[in-house]
Amino acid sequence: MCGIFGQFSFGRGPVDPAVISAMAGSIQHRGPDATGYHADETAVLGNCRLSILDLSEASNQPMVSDDGQTVVVQNGEIFNFIELRRDLERRGVRFHTSGDTEVLLRGFETWGPDFVTRLNGMFAIAIFEGRNGRLYLYRDRLGVKPLFLAGGPQEGRLWFASEIKAILQNGHDYPPDMGALAQYFALNYVPQPDTVFQGIRHLPPGHMARVDATGVSITRYWDLARISAQPDMSPAEAQAGLLQLLDDATRIRMRSDAPFGAFLSGGLDSSSVVGFMSLYKSNGLHTFSVGFDDPRFDESAYALMAAKRFGTLHERHLSAPTSADLWPQFIYHCDQPHGDVSFIPTLQVSRAAARQVKMVLTGDGGDELFGGYDKYLNVFPGGGTDHLSDGWEDAFARQSGLLQGHEARDILTGPLAEAFGDADPYRALSSEIRKVDHMDRINQVLFAETVTLLPGNNLVKPDRMALANSLEVRSPFLDYRMAEFAFLVPGHLKLHGGETKWILKKAVEPLLGSSLTWRKKQMFTVPVGEWFRDALAGHCREMLLDGRLEARGIIDINGVRSMVEAHVARTHNFNRQLRALYSLELWYRLFVDRDPVWLDQARTPDLRVIEGA
After folding, report:
1. Distance between CA atoms of 112 and 272, rounded to whole angstroms?
2. Which run of H or E residues covers position 201?
3. At what angle do helices 327-334 and 460-467 cross, to 10 degrees?
4. Residues 351, 487 share a domain
5. Residues 594, 611: contact at Cβ < 8 Å?
6. What are residue 555's DSSP bridge partners?
7. SS3 291
8. Which of 2, 48, 334, 540 is flagged as catalytic?
9. Same domain, 480 and 418
10. pLDDT(1) > 80
């Protein structure tokens, strides 16, 4: 697990070493163990290393081929590196390290640029071939690891990095993108490949980019949309396949030369992962959870139940209204506004875990693959689909989105209101539903959420919040084999009899027991809506109504004031809308205003970050 950064020059020559140093410094939290880079007339490839496999200096990056012509940096882990290494050794390849990065180097040399199809992992990889002046960039299939791009032939350089803040060190101006902000107010996050910075974009999941003097070519190497459900799959077949894959995906994600543990919320997915971990590590397994005083949000009793069942060393940490003080750090590490405040407890539990371990396993991905959210039952009551009428795809996107009814007219103004009205801001989700009309209706929605919500929001959370604390996160549910199998399972086995994740629950019940398996799901979030009504009411008013948000010319402050007062008075629940507005204003203060007071609050004490110009 690391952070990577670099650039490719279209005839512009070398980069100022001060810029390289600033890029590395801005993401040093992702990899504090070692920093290195390769730089020549054409390319820069840099890495900040968090040592998990082969802790020796021999596995520091960049890693260079024996002839000095091929340079590799990566962010992430290749979970099947042992099997790939054995295959390469049978072909006569010799290794000098025991880590996974050298497997990438030797695999590229042996199999060529398409070697990526052999990888089972979470990764963003950059490989430069000096002999032909060609750069390859890869992102893992599901977008677990980020990889941002900026520039291109017209600008004279292509920049890339694991976090946007590294690209911001290059001295270029990237103003706010109103189209992306319109999508933020539609979906509560900015869907990929867009970002809120004009000119900065994501490399999409499952894609690779080839860069040379002729330009940039981006191609897809994996497409989940090609999967079709097996309508005749029996519950027994589905359960057997699930258990086999979850077992193996967990096993290979426990490969580590550093101490590791797990996040354990007490929910179905994290409990299942910990259950399988306990089969391979029967004692001394550290687990971590965060709880709340408000029982509507607190799952810690179930986390303790799972910890006792599997014999883990469990730590519970309490989140209080003062946790909102971490909001600037949350937005700073995301580089973009997010309305999902569960980032805050994730930041807290990551900080706690990092005191004990260097890597954790989590249950991320299970809800999207197997239908774990109650909103799915709102669209498919009882798992039925016959009631759906034309346009249901748009209706789902809007109903599950942020602004409802006339709210966009009430609070958006100026160029942001124009952007919201000019193009369907919900299109990133609804278009993905329509893209897979060969799937059953339930799997259409789950596919769209897997390729949109997951990389756009839910996978940003563990990546940025954990790595803000130099902690690696791995999720067995995000094994690409699990994703492919999930969409072989017909939707009616996922939502069955009014039960979410029915087939997964049936499969893991013998492992977890009935109490953990069939309990009512609680959303992992922070009761900010309640705090905004009491302990943080004054702070909410000050943040949103002090004039700075209004002066940006994109928010109608009268509409916001009405929302704040109605929420505090408990006549309406505008929790999600106020959270999104709060995050937006924080983002402006950090990334547009470069406000030194807020930037100071956003930095954790151990971060050494050089701010861009």
Report:
1. 38
2. strand 200-202
3. 110
4. yes
5. yes
6. 412
7. strand
8. 2
9. no
10. no
For 402, the 3-state DSSP assignment is coil
Q: Are strands 359-361 and 260-263 parallel, antiparallel or unpaired?
A: parallel
- Cα 398 from Cα 401, distance rounded (Å): 5
Let me know if 606 is exposed, middle or buried by CB neighbors in 10 A (0-12, 13-18, 19+): exposed
Same domain, residue pair 69 and 121: yes
For 496, the domain range is 226-371+442-518
426 in Cβ contact with 401 (< 8 Å): yes
Strand arrangement, sheet containing 134-139? 63-64, 70-78, 121-129, 134-139, 207-212, 215-220
Among all chains, which residue has been given the structure tokens 């869907």?
191
Task: Indicate whether 233 and 130 sit together in one domain.
Answer: no
CA atoms within 13 A on the CB side of 590: 25
pLDDT value of position 608: 32
Q: Collapsing DSSP states into helix, strand and coil, what is residue 121?
A: strand
Which is nearest to 463 in space by CA: 7, 103, 142? 142
Q: Smallest Cα–Cα separation from 224: which of 447, 49, 467?
A: 447
Final residue of a domain: which of 206, 222, 238?
222
State the residue for tokens 């999600």. Answer: 576
Q: How far apart are CA 294 and CA 124, in angstroms?
A: 39
On whether both 235 and 183 belong to a single domain, the answer is: no
Query: 307-355: per-residue pLDDT in tens?
Result: 999 999 999 987 765 677 899 999 999 999 999 989 998 999 999 999 9
Residue 273: both structure tokens together: 């992962």
Q: For the whole model, what pTM was predicted?
A: 0.95
Nearest to 138 by CA among 117, 164, 152: 117
Q: Roughly how many angstroms between the first and final C-alpha of the chain, as a whole number?
A: 28
In a domain, 19, yes or no: yes
Phi then psi for residue 475, to 5 deg, are -130, 120
> Token pair of 149, please?
């791009």
Query: E-assigned strands of 432-558?
Result: 472-474
CB atoms within 10 A of CB 404: 11
34 bridge partner residues: 49
Tell me whether strands 207-212 and 134-139 are parallel, antiparallel or unpaired.
antiparallel
The whole-angstrom separation of Cα 613 and Cα 599 is: 14
Type and span of the H or E element at 415: helix 414-422
Spatial neighbors of 578 by CB under 8 A, at least 6 apart, are: 529, 532, 540, 544, 563, 564, 567
Return the residue matching tokens 């799997």. Answer: 443
Domain count, the chain: 4
- Per the CB < 8 A criterion, the answer to whether 447 and 487 are in contact is yes
334 classed as catalytic: no
Check: CB of residue 47 under 8 Å from CB of residue 104.
no
Where helices occur in 76-177 by DSSP H, the ranges are: 81-90, 101-111, 164-167
Task: Judge if 247 and 310 occupy the same domain.
Answer: yes
Do 333 and 603 form a contact (C-beta atoms < 8 A)?
Answer: no
Looking at the chain, how many residues does it have? 613
Question: What DSSP element (H or E) covers 39?
Answer: strand 34-39
- Which of 518, 543, 558 terminates a domain? The answer is 518
Q: What is the tens place of the pLDDT at every residue in 28-82? A: 999 999 999 999 999 999 999 999 999 999 999 999 999 999 999 999 999 999 9
In this prediction, residue 530 has a pLDDT band, given cuts at 50, 70 and 90, of: confident
| Residue 85 covered by a domain | yes
Q: List the one residue out of 1, 30, 5, 33 whose CA is nearest residue 19.
A: 5
- Please report whether residue 493 resides in a domain: yes
CB 357 within 8 A of CB 261: yes
Phi–psi pair at 11, nearest 5 degrees: 80, 10
